[in-house]
Design brief:
Helix content is about 50%, strand content about 5%. By secondary structure, it is mainly alpha-helical. The protein has a two-stranded parallel ribbon.
Length: about 170
C-alpha cells in the first residue's frame, strides 16, 4: 500500500507556502539589536512590532498580505535565533564540535535549513531530534496532565502556591 510520512507532507506544505509568501516584505524590528553578546532569546519587541503592524493594517488585509505578515515574522524570529546561536557558539571557551537541536519549532524546515547552513559555516555537526519527537510541548503537557488527573493528582486553587516553579529560569541557573 501507499505510505505517506508526516515529514514528507510537512516538507511539501512548507514548500508550497514558501512559493506564496514574501518573508522580507515587512521590515520588522530586529530583536535584541546591538545586544547579541548577551546571548538572550527575547522576542518581545518583535511581537510588539508585529501586533502594531497588524493593527495598523486593520481590516484591509489582502490574501497576499495574510501570507507575507507571518512569513516576515518568522523570517525575523529565525534570523534572531541564528544570530544568537552563532554568537553563542563563536564565543565559547572551547571548540564546539556538535549542535544538538530539538523542540517543536525544529519541525519547521526553514529553520532546519538555516541551522544546517550555520553549522556548515561554523564547521560543526548539527543533530536534529527525530521529527516524531518534535511535537507540540503543549500537547505533551496536556497528556501528562490527563494522566495525573486520572490518578486523582489534582491541586485545589488554594494549593497552587505549593507548585515548585521558577519562571524565566536561565539555562545556567537551577
Amino acid at each position: 500500500g501507499l505510505e505517506l510520512q508526516d515529514e514528507d507532507i510537512l516538507v511539501f506544505a512548507q514548500k508550497i507556502v514558501t512559493l506564496l509568501e514574501n518573508p522580507k516584505k515587512y521590515n520588522l524590528h530586529r530583536p535584541m539589536a546591538g545586544r547579541e553578546n548577551q546571548n538572550h532569546f527575547s522576542y518581545s519587541g518583535l511581537k510588539s512590532a508585529f501586533f502594531r503592524l497588524v493593527k495598523a493594517q486593520g481590516t484591509r488585509l489582502k490574501a497576499q498580505e495574510l501570507n507575507d505578515l507571518p512569513a516576515s515574522f518568522q523570517h525575523r524570529a529565525f534570523e534572531h535565533l541564528i544570530r544568537i546561536t552563532r554568537n553563542s557558539i563563536s564565543n565559547l571557551e572551547f571548540s564546539a564540535l556538535d549542535l544538538l537541536v530539538g523542540g517543536g519549532v525544529i519541525a519547521n524546515q526553514n529553520l532546519r535549513q538555516r541551522l544546517l547552513e550555520l553549522c556548515k559555516e561554523l564547521n560543526i555537526n548539527v543533530h536534529f531530534a527525530p521529527m516524531e519527537l518534535c511535537g507540540d510541548n503543549a500537547a505533551m503537557i496536556g497528556i501528562a496532565a490527563g494522566f495525573k488527573f486520572s490518578r486523582g493528582e489534582v491541586l485545589s486553587p488554594d494549593q497552587l502556591g505549593q507548585i515548585d516553579r521558577l519562571p524565566r529560569l536561565k539555562v545556567d541557573q537551577g
